[in-house]
Amino acid sequence: MAARIIDGRAIAAQLTERISDDVALLKERHGITPGLAVVLVGQDPASQIYVRNKVKKTRELGMASIRHSLPEDASQEELLELINRINCDPKIHGLLVQLPLPGPIDEASVIEAIRPDKDVDGFHISNVGLLSRGKRGVVPCTPLGCLMLLKHELGSLEGCDAMVLGRSNIVGKPLANVLLHENCTVTIAHSRTRNLAEQCRRADILIAAVGRPALVKGSWIKPGATVIDVGINRLTDRNTGRSKIVGDVDFQQVSQIAGAVTPVPGGVGPMTIACLLANTYQACCRIHKLDDMPDASRV
Ligand code: NDP
User: How far does residue 207's CA lie from ligand 1's centre (Å)?
Assistant: First the structure.
């Protein structure tokens, strides 16, 4: 039987509509407009597209968005000075530095320079610590988006066996923590994991975040499992030069066995950006201590 397709675009559209209403209410009740600053260093084409999208979507929801561009050869000191200025700007509630950073700039020092309550990516060590303790901090956008998709599909995740493929700091590890707080039994796999297929076959929930095109095969899936594909891999046809985006999951095979699966594109990607908007609105409410406002990431 073919799996249900989890429509990330539609779920993200519902979420952004809700955030837009919350932002309007925030302005009406408190006269405050949430503001996001996005910092781009260099000319990386993919990063430029991501930044343009983030700024555009933020403005569409009625929030303020400012883009700061630094040249490829900007020094770490210049970047840290800019971050410090944004940290002190009362009109800005969310600050993100587009990764990866070029050249010799130390990414970790840059992330640690961001004020934790404005760190809408949730990468600052304080937010990482809060998440691992199960406390309220900022949850990184992609893991938060995956959680929302899973809850939309399954409701409660309590007691589910969850397999997280990938252990990066931006997806795999925070996602494992998020699922643990939902009372899943979590396994994290990586490039050194033995018997990967066999381990995956035990999972009620399988999330692939490895960056390997179509790594996850149909035979790795427990019948009826829910599969979330985080991967974004660009494949270029040698003959035509045309390129397409594929996930980490072999969609044709997996959709014959799974109960539900996210497509690529149109699954996790739209949720990641919607969650950035939710985190920006939420940061604004937290900074101004507005307890009377709705929680944008409610599921
Ligand atoms: P990283 O490269 O930082 O991490 C990849 C992880 O996958 C590592 O833990 C690595 O293991 C593991 N891995 C690699 N190959 C294998 C394998 N053959 N078997 C098992 N594990 C393997 O990637 P990210 O976490 O940053 O991103 C993962 C994917 O998600 C990428 O395709 C990225 O483009 C996409 N992405 C999508 C987003 C979205 O919005 N949809 C947002 C962020 C990322 P080890 O640690 O041992 O090296």
Answer: 11
Taking the centre of ligand 1 as the mean of its atom positions, its distance from the CA of residue 168, in whole angstroms, is 6
What interhelical angle do 141-154 and 8-30 show, nearest 10? 110
The dihedral of CA 244, 234, 176, 272: what is its sign?
negative
Our answer to whether residue 98 is catalytic in this structure is yes
Among residues 58, 52, 71, which one has the least CA distance to residue 16? 58
> Minimal CA–CA distance to 249: which of 262, 260, 235?
262
Active site residue 121: yes
189 Cβ closer than 6 Å to some ligand 1 atom:
yes
Is the pLDDT at 298 greater than 90? The verdict is no
Q: Looking at 22, 57, 98, 222, which residue is catalytic?
A: 98
Residue 214 beta carbon below 6 angstroms from any ligand 1 atom: no
Q: How confident is the model at residue 299 (pLDDT cuts 50, 70, 90)?
A: low
Note whether 222 and 204 are within 8 A (CB): yes
> Of all protein residues, whose CA lies closest to atom 18 belonging to ligand 1?
191
Buried b / exposed e across 104-132, counting CB within 10 Å, b at 16+?
ebeeeebbbbbbbbbbbbbbbebbbebbe
What is the CA(80)–ligand 1 centre distance, in A? 28
Where residue 1 falls among pLDDT bands split at 50, 70, 90? Answer: low
Whole-number average pLDDT of the chain: 96
pLDDT band at residue 245 under the 50/70/90 scheme? very high
The answer to pTM > 0.90 is yes
Q: Nearest to residue 64, comparing CAs of 72, 54, 73?
A: 54
